[in-house]
Every structure is written in C-alpha cells, then in structure tokens.
Write a structure and sequence with these properties.
With about 140 residues, this protein is α+β, with helices and mostly antiparallel strands. It has helices at about 1-15, 20-25, 45-60, 125-130; strands at about 30-35, 40-45, 65-75, 80-95, 95, 100-110, 115-120. Strand 4 (about 80-95) and strand 5 (about 95) form a beta hairpin. The protein is globular.
Length: about 140
C-alpha cells in the first residue's frame, strides 16, 4: 500500500501543476471534505469540486508554482478498512519554497487497489492567495 499512497500523492500534486481536473477528481470520493485553518468545507457534487479546483489553480498561478511535492510521512490502516495517510506538502517556484511546508492527513479508501480520498485534514486553503472565501 505504500507504493499506492506515493502514487496517490503524485497524482493529487501533479493535477494542479498540469491543470488536470480529471486527475484530481478521479482521486476523490464525494462528499469530499477539506478542513482548512479557516473552516471546514464540504464539496458534494462535481460542480463544487470543479469550482474549488479552479480557485487552487488561481493560487498556483499567483505563486508561479512549477512543482508541488508531497512526501509521505505515515500510512495507517484503520479497522474499518480505510487508511489515514499523513504527508508534507511543499510548493515550489523554481528552487524556492513559495510558502512554508504544510502537513496534512487524508482519509483514503482502497477501491480496487487504488486510493481515493474522502477528506483532507489541515488542507492548505487558497484564500491567502486568491482572496476568495472558500465555499
């Protein structure tokens, strides 16, 4: 499962650099919840996920990101068959950090050997860069 977690982290990182909504969406389960420092956000449909994704693309453009690097810290199997995956995210512009690294934990589900996320705790919100309050 460690390699699938690493693949999952690569997919969710590259989705924003490559502006690939389908890659992001294919790693989520609805409803999808994000807990940011400002408030929890629950996205219940594809339109809400797409709107939220677009705001993160705006933030990535504002920071001139060319790399989002997520490094696994831990992966723990839960008794109900889900997994808690903790990782550190670095956002880079060239060789420089665009913002301080952030540690998050995802609740992931193994669906046919592929991780899909239903929640992210301590998610990095886009409001600091976009000025748009998250729904």
């Amino acid at each position: 499962m460690k390699s699938e977690f690493e693949h999952f982290l690569t997919d969710i990182s590259n989705a924003f650099i490559e502006c690939n909504f389908d890659q992001w969406r294919n790693r989520l389960l609805l409803p999808f919840s994000l807990v940011t420092k400002l408030k929890p956000i629950v996205l219940t449909n594809d339109a809400a996920v797409a709107k939220n994704f677009e705001q993160y693309l705006v933030a990535a453009k504002m920071m001139n990101l060319d790399l989002i690097d997520r490094v696994p810290i831990s992966l723990e199997e839960c008794p109900d068959g889900t997994w808690l995956g903790t990782f550190r995210t670095r956002m880079l512009c060239g060789a420089h950090l665009a913002t301080a690294p952030n540690t998050s934990t995802a609740l992931v589900h193994d669906i046919d050997g592929r991780f899909r996320m239903s929640s992210m705790l301590n998610a990095r919100g886009h409001q600091d860069w976009t000025g748009v309050e998250e729904a």
